[in-house]
Amino acid sequence: MNRCGAIVLIFVSLLGNGALAGDSAVNVAHAGSLITVFNGPIATAFRSSGFTFQGQGKGSVGLANMIDSGLIAPDVFVASDANVMADLLKKHQSISWYATFATSRLVLAYSPHSHLVNSFNQARLKRAPWTALLTRTDVKLVRTDPALDPKGYRTIILAQLAEGYYRIPGFASSALGDDQNAAQLQTDEGILLRLESGDADAAFLYAIEAISRRLPYIELPAELNLGDERFAARYATGSVVVNGVARRGAPIEYAFTIPSAARNPSGADAFLHFLEGGQGRRIMSEAGLTMTDLTFYGDRRLAPTDLR
Question: What pLDDT is stored for residue 93 in this prediction?
């Protein structure tokens, strides 16, 4: 065989194995709250597996809608609300299983450059009520769209719970305005950038966002922060209807799956194996997630063997 023929055979072999078809890249559609840790330490460490990470971070509801409609076909989908996965599973088209793998809590993060940073610091030390700050006319609170992102509707639910907990009638509407208050709505990354620059004063974030971006934050009572299973019944007293869908308060659970239309299932297996391995779990824990044992829903036989 001449040299040209050998090169052609090698090219065809590589193409068949995916080396030239981009199969080394794993496309991960993930909750916007994971942008910093996924695009940073997770992507860097994952390279040792022989694959590369390609992330798309947005609101979990918005991503689920895009997957369901066929607009995107990621290899892995990671949502910040297991109920979003449950909604997809009910349709029996886009996914056939999912597993919960971590929990989190909401905190009130604030900008270190806010003109009221001293007041927020006092509230962090429990020397002043944080609720009073959020109803000031000179405070800019930002949040995600409840129609696209679980943190968006969880923010509304937390504000409702705070009304009863602190006995402040009307607190939610005073702090947030309408559910779709355009003056407050931003993307996950937009919120983080505005807090870092001082263009916004405060936002309810998952702990992983505040910790990974090193933003100061106020710990909220477990009765409100949606992060403690013991208060599940209390959380459920808060609810909001978004686009005809009722969203009720519940402990925060992150979940992942491999969509049925995944183009790189072997890469998806490798990514979830890494995420659940010692290094992945350590990175996620240090970033602020509480990693838990996997709980499967749907047809777990279709999940990667090493996860089951």
Answer: 84
